[in-house]
Amino acid sequence: MGFIRTAIITALSILLLLSFFLMAITLTLSWSLEYDTIKPELQNSINELASEEFGLNEIIGQEINLMQMYCMNNTKFVIEEEGYILEIPCNIVGEGSEAIIDYGINSVIEKIYYQEYNCDFWKCVKETNTPFVLLSEKARSYWKSKFHFFLLTSLAIATLIFFTSKRKHTVLLLSGILLILSVLPLVKISLLFSNPLIPNSLTGIIEGFFTRSFNVFLIFSIIGLFIFLFSMALHFFDIGKRMSNWFTKNKESVSSDDIKNIVHNEISKKSKKGEIAISHPEEKPKKHISIKEIKKIVKEEIVKKEINKKYK
Fold it and tell me: Which of 69, 43, 60, 55 is closest to 96 using CA atoms?
């Protein structure tokens, strides 16, 4: 039975570690995909991509005179490219090519982020021609919901460990340690994107998904350390042992010494009444008190003791 309990607790601990890790990843993605957080990352990457891959700076520089002439009799200049319509106010056009590029990038980012999708998250990822849904508010909401799911899963697994373990006070200690271990990979997660084969512009976008990874690492580590120290305090003040005893069968309402005294007194009473007798080895055994009767007597004494304690 002890081996089975140990195996179950080990398996649950591994699941708890995995659940904590997925909790940290989904919270990182949710926080990193907030608009004010992801926008600067996308601005730098898209600006670099537009300049290096498409030569947007040169194109705008060549067309700036035409755009300014058009704006002499209009209030906005409209650009349509691959299904996207970008309207640039003429006052922005008058500020020059750099202002036009900044305004265009910011407008595209806002449109991508807040675009509405009439499909489930992963279905949108598979079916849309461009993976912009990964950078949208829909993605942030999806990862936030998954964080809540893994949070509840972690609480459920910790509860199972609590009721499976004999030493109840060790559950907090184990949870604190596992919580700290689960976020250690977040410290070095940037190494995953240091591949020289990945263009710098794409590296910036990928790293944008994990902008808040260090924040999550700090929060989880502090919470884990607090839980660890709290469990040590419980152990120091012997509260954990009392908690374990409270969940133990009979909760030590009657101690082993009490049981011995109850049995001894009952045997003495019955011996005096002639109901039972203590026989010598050479004599024919007389009627002895049975184990069943002893259990009945002990149970009755336990009930009496609990009633006296309750109404004392």
Answer: 60
Question: What are the structure tokens assigned to 120, written together?
Answer: 């489930």
CA dist 141 and 132 (Å) reads 15
| pLDDT category of residue 198 using cuts at 50, 70 and 90 | low
Under a CB-based contact definition with an 8 Å cutoff, are residues 101 and 47 in contact? Answer: yes
* Six-digit token string for 101: 């590029």
248-282 residue pLDDT tens: 544 444 455 555 666 666 666 655 555 554 444 45
3-state helix, strand, coil in the chain (%, to 5): 75, 5, 20
Q: Output phi, psi for 78, to 5 deg.
A: -105, 130
Taking alpha carbons only, the member of 99, 43, 46, 109 closest to residue 71 is 99
The domain limits of the chain are: 2-234, 253-310
Residue 164's contacts (CB-CB under 8 Å, 6 or more residues apart) are: 5, 8, 9, 12
Q: What is the pTM of this model?
A: 0.70
